[in-house]
Design brief:
With 210 residues, the protein is α+β, with helices and mostly antiparallel strands. It contains 5 helices and 7 strands; from the N terminus they run αβααβββββαβα.
Length: 210
Amino acid sequence: MSDYSYFDHSAERIFNEHLSSDEKIIWAGKPEANMIFSQEDIFMIPLSLIVGFPVFLLGTSIITTLPDDISPIRKYFIIIFTVLAMLVGFYIIIGRFIYKVLKRKRTFYVVTDKRILWISGLFTPHFQDLYIDQISDINKQVSPVGIGTLKFSRTGTVYTDVFSGFYTNTGLDILSKAGQRYVFIDIKDAEKVYSIITELMGSKEEEQEM
């Protein structure tokens, strides 16, 4: 069932403590570090420029044109508020890509004969898992070079692509849990991983019918 050409042994070691004694790792991997831009950025980059640059310009204008006779407390309040707004603008334009690169270095995925698992987190590692028989559907997006993203829907859970598609892999997933759940982002040989998981799903359905 498995193809180990893209098996990541560092990811395998990280997940060992989370596995049961009778659980077998079939595939292990992580996001491609050099895939900075995503499909969502076709929409996000123009939007970030439209929102971010005016914030910078307005913030610079406000700080440089503050009148001298303004009270110190009011002056500091305006400066702090303006700088915070400018930081948000910076994050939307540039910072989110830095966040994506750093987060990818700390993200690992595993498929076992029972579950799909992933660990991710910029500062504190966050472990999540989903049993194979809980997966109701897989949304697959694969590039011509074989790198792709798999989005998993959980049985009995309303998980629409409206929110997951907007936040996932944009660097804005930090703002919403919807963009962080049930996704393998930019993995090598995505078609093979998709086939492995769908085979496991089929096997589990057969077991339940017996």
